[in-house]
UniProtKB/TrEMBL annotation:
EC number(s) recorded for this UniProt protein: 4.1.2.4
GO BP: carbohydrate catabolic process; deoxyribonucleotide catabolic process
Extent of the signal sequence: none
Protein species of origin: Paraburkholderia acidicola
Protein name listed in UniProt: Deoxyribose-phosphate aldolase
Top-level class of the enzyme under EC nomenclature: lyase
Catalytic activity: 2-deoxy-D-ribose 5-phosphate = D-glyceraldehyde 3-phosphate + acetaldehyde
Similarity comment: family membership: Belongs to the DeoC/FbaB aldolase family. DeoC type 2 subfamily.
A single Gene Ontology CC term: cytoplasm
Keywords, ordered alphabetically: Lyase, Schiff base
UniProt pathway: Carbohydrate degradation; 2-deoxy-D-ribose 1-phosphate degradation; D-glyceraldehyde 3-phosphate and acetaldehyde from 2-deoxy-alpha-D-ribose 1-phosphate: step 2/2
Origin: domain of life: Bacteria
GO molecular function, one term: deoxyribose-phosphate aldolase activity
Entry-linked CDD domains: DeoC
Length: 339
């Protein structure tokens, strides 16, 4: 049975399920580096492409179910602003949208309680962490900070650690780090492990999301190995992209990464989250990612504890689709501002 969120269950307290059993995701403690786990990790690209090509054809989500899935997707969005012209005012407006991402009249038409839906987090540069924490006070919405010289990750390593520590001190509950791509491209897996392990230690109580920059590391086999090494080193989430690469999130790299999450869970029992970012801008595309998560990993990975989407414009399109569901009419994008 393809069990998934419904409109009638969205306003109820969420309990993540894995194979029918309630679970509470914990921090990933990591493990000692084991190069043997990387032996034989090769990806058949044509097989990956065949699998992802079937997602939109084998499963369809319509009407009530589609509205419920889109509302669930909103709760998994890391609502993001990472522009050079960001201001504190823009960040505070984004936080207000995170608190109430769907217009009250639409929620009422859908039978959803006011303030029952919020985004999963707000993601900003370190400069705006304190302002975002202040704007979200009392909401329960965490602040995620991009760090370690985002997006290129080419600043000195000690500065990367200090940036993480500064963001945690300012109240960030999640840290999105970028790896050194050179370690992947040269196959220096021990160096990648050591780097991420130190990032994990610098995070303290904050959750660590490791950004692989999949558009930069060239091959799906590199994506598989980098995913496994980052999880060994203690990453709580693995994330596709910074959103600044030439190619960002795709279903192909997502499939490879979630298969590695499944393998890591089978070996360790630890649940690792997944975050596609960059290019997930339409309601149609996010449904494909949700179906992928449900089919490959299970029900637990439809919840924000284990699934996030790095996005900004996605929210406007989802809200527009919900208005069409409620009223039968599409409205202009400017009726659904993000900030």
């Amino acid at each position: 049975m393809f069990e998934a969120p419904t409109l009638s269950t969205l306003s109820q307290p969420v309990v993540a399920l894995h194979r029918g059993t309630a679970v509470q995701p914990l921090r990933n403690p990591g493990m000692p580096f084991d190069a043997g786990w990387l032996d034989g990790l090769r990806v058949n690209q044509s097989a990956v492409e065949r699998r992802t090509a079937t997602l939109a054809t084998r499963r369809t989500v319509k009407k009530d179910a589609q509205a419920a899935w889109l509302l669930k997707a909103i709760t998994c969005i890391d609502l993001t602003t990472l522009s050079g012209d960001d201001t504190e005012g823009r960040v505070r407006r984004l936080c207000a949208k995170a608190r109430q991402p769907v217009r009250a009249d639409l929620l009422d038409a859908l039978g959803i309680a006011p303030h029952a839906i919020t985004t999963g987090a707000v993601c900003v540069y370190h400069r705006f962490v304190a302002a975002a924490v202040d704007a979200l006070q009392g909401s329960g919405i965490p602040v995620a900070a991009v760090s370690t010289g985002f997006p290129a990750g080419l600043i000195p390593h000690p500065l990367k650690l200090k940036e993480i520590e500064a963001s945690v001190a300012d109240g960030a509950a999640e840290i999105d780090i970028v790896i050194t791509r050179e370690h992947v491209l040269t196959g220096n897996w021990q160096a990648l492990y050591d780097e991420v392990r130190e990032f994990r230690a610098a995070c303290g109580p904050a959750h660590l999301k490791a950004i692989l920059a999949t558009g930069d590391i060239r091959t799906l086999s590199n994506v598989a190995r980098a995913s496994m090494v980052c999880m060994m080193a203690g990453a709580d989430f693995i994330k596709t992209s910074t959103g600044k690469e030439g190619v960002n999130a795709t279903l192909d790299v997502a499939l490879v990464m979630v298969r590695m999450i499944r393998e890591y869970h089978a070996r360790t029992g630890v649940l690792i989250g997944f975050k596609p970012a960059g290019g997930v801008s339409s309601a149609k595309s996010v449904l494909s990612y949700q179906i992928l998560m449900k089919e490959e990993l299970g029900r637990a990975w439809l919840e924000p504890e284990l699934f996030r989407i790095g996005a900004s414009s996605l929210l406007a399109d989802i809200e527009r689709q919900l208005e069409h569901y409620a009223s039968g009419r599409y409205s202009a994008f400017n009726r659904h501002p993000v900030a």
